[in-house]
Amino acid sequence: MSSPFDVDAVVLDIEGTTSATGFVVDVLYPYSRSRFAALLTGRADDPAVSRAIAQVRELTGDPDADAVQIEKTLNSWLDEDRKATPLKTLQGIIWSEGFARGDLVSHFYDDVVPALRAWHSAGLRLYVYSSGSVAAQRAWFTSSPEGDLLPLVSGLYDTENAGPKQEPESYRRIAAATGIEPSRLLFLSDRPGELDAAVAAGWHAVGVRRPGEPYFEQGVGDHAQAGAFDEIDITSSRSTT
């Protein structure tokens, strides 16, 4: 690992970074796939569901798509692992309810939670920026195997309230929303394109490379890298320890 990062906040990707992609793909995706039809037909008038339906119709160029066609589109996007905002919105609704019922418990790599608690205790602010919806992120951190981790987190960002994860402007929006100078923000992700975008916006970035994750072999380009959170050395003027 390189020299310590002197920052005031850490922004976390989830899939492949704090948590295993395999859990998302093998557990959460099938869970949502089996429940799309009921959500689309039974709760189409719910504001969040209605907005997502309209977004699917807009993205597919089919203003008359019915529930069956929309479900087919959602499943196709799932197969492609497309980070489409309406897909993530509907998944977030389904997953949030699954976590609340106790059907689901989220996954974190063993090194993550101790690091998050240590960083938080040291005065660092923690944020999440994931392609999963804010609702899904909230449920994920609330329903961890180690209990409710949401009190550690100062804010949640997704592709709807921040923008696409490989565009520098999204990171500028997050910096503005947090009130933290870009040079005082550190982004952790396994995806090179996201790291590039964060750095282009003036942030620091570390590529997290975990064996078995989809981007492990690709590497993280010329970014600093770590195999686990306990390899990341952070200092901060906000530190209380």
Write the topology of this structure.
Elements: E1 5-6, E2 9-12, H1 21-33, H2 36-42, H3 47-60, H4 67-80, H5 85-101, H6 112-121, E3 125-129, H7 134-142, E4 153-157, H8 168-178, E5 185-189, H9 192-200, E6 204-208, E7 224-226, E8 234-235
Helix pairs in contact: 1-5, 2-4, 3-5, 5-7, 8-9
Describe the fold and architecture.
The chain is an alpha/beta fold. Helix content is 43%, strand content 13%. It has 9 helices and 8 strands. The protein has helices at residues 21-33, 36-42, 47-60, 67-80, 85-101, 112-121, 134-142, 168-178, 192-200; strands spanning 5-6, 9-12, 125-129, 153-157, 185-189, 204-208, 224-226, 234-235. A 6-stranded parallel β-sheet has the order 4-3-2-5-6-7, with helices on both faces. Strand 3 (125-129), helix 7 (134-142) and strand 4 form a beta-alpha-beta unit. Helix 2 packs antiparallel against helix 4 (67-80). The mean pLDDT is 94.
Per DSSP E runs of 2 or more residues, the count of β-strands stands at 8
Structural category: alpha/beta
| Shape label | globular
How can the largest sheet be summarized? Answer: 6 strands, parallel
H-E order: EEHHHHHHEHEHEHEEE
Radius of gyration: 18 Å
Terminus-to-terminus distance: 22 Å
Helix content: 40-55%
Content of β-strand: 5-15%
Question: So how many helices?
Answer: 9
Provide mean pLDDT, rounded.
Answer: 94
Show unreliable segments: none
Q: Give, in spatial order, the strands making up the sheet with the most strands.
A: 4-3-2-5-6-7
